[in-house]
Amino acid sequence: MSKYNQLWQYIQDNYDEDFSLTFAEIGRIAGVPLDHSFLHYKKELSEYGFEVQKISMKYQQVNFHKI
């Protein structure tokens, strides 16, 4: 079980097109703060029909793309 499973399930249940979430929103939804390990775990998201399109450090947000 991944520490981001709550986030992946939330994305699958609430979105049916491309969208963005801030780092703070991701931490709140996932129940854990966004950290460097997200880069490793993000590949799991494809099992839920999405992929990480872009991570913006400047705007502190992640863009997700429906696949």
Structure, explained:
With 67 residues, the protein is of the alpha+beta class. The chain has one domain. 33% of the residues lie in helices and 25% in strands. It is built from 3 helices and 3 strands, in the order αβααββ. The chain has helices at 5-14, 23-30, 38-41, and strands at 19-22, 50-56, 61-66. The protein has a 3-stranded antiparallel sheet. β2 and β3 (61-66) form a beta hairpin. The longest helix is centred in the first third of the chain and has 10 residues, at 5-14. The N and C termini lie far apart (22 Å). 16% of the residues are buried. The mean pLDDT is 95.
Task: Give a short synopsis of this structure.
With 67 residues, the chain is α+β, with helices and mostly antiparallel strands. The chain has helices at 5-14, 23-30, 38-41, and strands spanning 19-22, 50-56, 61-66.
> What is the strand content?
25-35%
Number of beta-strand segments: 3
Helix tally equals: 3
Main sheet properties: 3 strands, antiparallel
> What is the terminal separation in angstroms?
22 Å
